[in-house]
Amino acid sequence: MKTTENIFDDTAIIVSDGCCVQLANNPALDDVTFEIKKGKKVAVVGPNGGGKSTLFNAIAGLVPIINGSLKINGMSPKDAKGTISYVPQRDLINRNFPLSVKQVVEMGLINKNTLNLFSRKEINLKIKEALTNVGLSEKINENINNLSGGQFQRVLIARGLAQDADILLLDEAFSAVDVGAQEDIMSLINDINLDGKTILVATHDLNNLEKNFDEVLCLNRHCCAYGDPAEVLTEDVIEEMYGSHYEMFKYHTSEKHEKNND
User: Fold this and answer.
1) What is the pLDDT of residue 206?
2) pTM higher than 0.85 for the full model?
3) Can you give the residue range of the structural domain that contains 239?
4) Does any domain span residue 60?
5) For position 229, what pLDDT does the model report?
6) pLDDT digits over 6-64, tens only?
7) In a domain? residue 231
8) Is residue 3 part of a domain?
9) CA dist., res. 223 & res. 217, Å (int)
10) Which among 105, 113, 129, 241 has most CB atoms closer than 10 A?
11) What is the CATH number of the domain that holds 25?
C-alpha cells in the first residue's frame, strides 16, 4: 500500500551528491545524486552490475566514496553506522552452517556491538520482539536449514529490526521466493514503514512499483532517474537503465504492465 499521507518529518535522511565508488579500479557508481526523505519506501532498480548492491554497501559504510559525498542524517556513512540496518542478498548467507533462527537474529546485535550494553535477558527480549514482528516467534529455536526461502528472508529482516535502526536496506528481498512469500514480505515492509523507518529495497521487479513504493531510484552506475514511479518510469528511463535489454522491459511502464501479445 503506497503511503498517501506525509506523517513523517519532511527531512532528507540520505543525501547523495555526485557520489562515486570504485571497485578494483573500475567505476561502480559515477556521479550519483539523489535525496531521500525520512519515512519513505524506495525501490532501487537497475540491471545486474548497475550498482544497486554497491550503493547499499556505500550507505552502510562498507565501501569508500572516492568522489562527491554521501550523507546519512548529515553524517558520513562510517559515522552513521548505528542508524542503518543492512540485509544483504540472501544467497550471500551460508545456510549450510548449523545455526538456529535465534543465533542468526542475534548476529545483528553482535555486529552493532550491543552485546556488552545489554543483559542476556534484554538481548533475548530484543530477539523475541524482532521475530514476533516478522511472524516467526515460534521458529526461534529452528535450524535455518529447515526454513522456506520466504521464512529465511523474514529471519534476515528480523536480524535487521533487532538493531533498532532508522534506515533499513533490503538487497533483493524478493529473490528466490514464490509469489505468496513476496506478498508477505511486502506486507511486512509496509508495516515496518508505518513505524517510521526509511526503507530501501533493491529489486529487479518493475511491476507494482507504483502500488508498493513512494519513490523509485533508477540506477545503471549513474542515477537515471529518481522520484514518483508514476512519473519517472518512462520508456526513455527504462532504455537508459537496461540498454540493449530494453525490449525485455519496454512494457513495464507506469501506463502499461501487460505482456506483449503480438
Assistant:
1) 87
2) no
3) 12-249
4) yes
5) 94
6) 444 458 899 999 999 998 888 899 999 999 999 999 999 999 989 999 999 999 999 99
7) yes
8) no
9) 7
10) 105
11) 3.40.50.300
Sheet holding 167-171, edge to edge: 84-87, 167-171, 198-202, 41-45, 215-219, 223-227
**Which residue numbers in the chain have pLDDT < 50?**
1-9, 112, 115, 245-262
How is residue 222 written as a grid cell? Answer: 549513474
The number of domains in the chain is: 1
Answer for the pair 47, 119: CB distance below 8 angstroms, yes or no.
no
In a domain, 42, yes or no: yes
Residue 90 pLDDT: 63
